[in-house]
Amino acid sequence: MMLPSLPDRHTLPLPAQVAQMIVVRASGYLFDQQIRYPQWEAPAKTLQTWIQEWGVGGVILLGGSAPELALRIQQLQEWATIPLLTAADVEEGIGQRFAGATWFPPPMALAAIAQGSLTAARSYAEQMGAITAQEAQAIGLNWMLAPVTDVNNNPRNPVINIRAFGETPTVVTDLITAFIQGAQAHPVLTTAKHFPGHGDTAVDSHLQLPILPHSLERLRQVEFPPFQAAIAAGVDAVMTAHLQIPALDPTYPATLSHQILTNELRQNLGFNGLIVTDALIMGAIADHFGANEAAVLAVEAGADILLMPADPVGAIQAICQAVDTGRLTPERIQASVERIWRVKQKVCAAHSDSQFSHAWEQLSPTVQPQELVTDLAQPGAIALVDRILEDSSKVHQPILSRLNQADQRSDRRNLILVDNLLNCKELGHYTPAVKIPEALGYSLQLVDRHTPCHSLESSHLPWQPTLLQLFIRGNPFRSSAGLTQTAQEWLTFLIQSEQLQALILYGSPYTLTQFLPLLPPDVPYVFTYGQMDQAQAIALKALFGSEIST
Predict the structure, then answer these.
(1) Overall number of domains in the chain
(2) Residue 225 is assigned to a structural domain of this protein
(3) Which of 531, 526, 422 shows the shortest CA–CA distance to 478?
(4) pTM greater than the 0.85 cutoff
(5) What is the pLDDT of residues 116-157, one digit of tens each?
(6) Does residue 132 sit in the same domain as residue 192?
(7) What pLDDT digit, counting tens, does each position of 223-240 carry?
(8) Pick the catalytic residue: 204, 249, 278, 391?
(9) 116 with 153, same domain?
(10) Catalytic: which of 186, 194, 198, 206?
(11) Known catalytic membership, residue 206
């Protein structure tokens, strides 16, 4: 399959130009019955209409395996008259969103490594960017919504948290620059997010509108420098933050603010690339502005790409009407289309000759899906993940007294607590957190934030030495506060009843800091930033010793 060529943008009618500014959400799965988020992901017929008839400019994808996504992207591109931007939130590698590809630890793991060696952390960040971009290109993704460029200087931040590359502008600047430089070896777009900085909030903008009370001077000292570095490194796009900064704009949040997007980002910081909104269906915008009005306001503010508008067709019509009435000028739309064409020429350049650049372009009835994975999760990438996990964990590890298997009781319990058991990709029957304790004689008990805790008060509960494994990190759209409370209740109960044998915490160092004062000094613990299989195996090996089978 060859992508269609870009037409002369000047010949496009106004609705077609505006449609190029729209990026809609699409399921990564091939069939409608597999859609996981029907409130955001349209069925195939609607999606095909948006792409074929309205000519939307791109899609953001979630769900499915990496080989399946390659087929899905092929399908979407075949519907398009103008090549699509195909985006995904792959802050931790392609495997974070699409099974089978490389899944890196959260970016804050590199900040931990930087405490001991900034040189090593930079090297890891550059390799992480290169591998993520290479795997994206292999399956047809041409736009990485990464790296997160926020400085997470608020431990209570429920939405950025360990997605950030650090807690200081210096470290974040160094690491995001290395990530961008690594990714530039491949014709895939990068994105610095979330401007002007979402790191010092305690409110999840997926749910509410955060307010950042800082002065412009403070923003220029802390929040702006990483974005300036990303621009200097040649980042292709900057994503807006759904938060309000009264010192810059007392009326509108950043996504809808001309002062912030045009005056600060465009003029003062000199950014000439794509400005893309964060998802317009998020509560911080959707709950305060009408769906179509928000789209017009974002364009007025200076946005080039409207990500996930609640009503894509309505947004196109509203923007066209704003041009017809003089609220927006045709030149304003043309400026955005010019930038969109520039990046589409970059990512489509590999398609301009007769050579295939993606495995899926050669797909024929004789090609099997497994042939599409030759560029994914290669041994070097897996080894890199292991090194990042091991090096970042050393910062938080105590002198560990391992558990002696020979002296253990036969009624031991492996208690695993996750956010939501119904939507948990980290666990399965054969994942290390389950299978390794099972092989050592532990019985399994699973708990999530929906599990009632009143049973902890029951005096008839059997006494069991317990390995407690906590999977806790920031969770956009629901925060992690409820889970942290549940985890603390279980941890307190197990300590007070003298059942806690050991603790493994996967995810947030902020939660570790919160829980460590509660932990008896003779109870061993292990911390790792990652939650994937590799992180589980490394953590359990640290606890039980090298004799266990991983």
Answers:
(1) 2
(2) yes
(3) 422
(4) yes
(5) 999 999 999 999 999 999 999 999 999 999 999 999 998 888
(6) yes
(7) 999 999 999 999 999 999
(8) 278
(9) yes
(10) 206
(11) yes
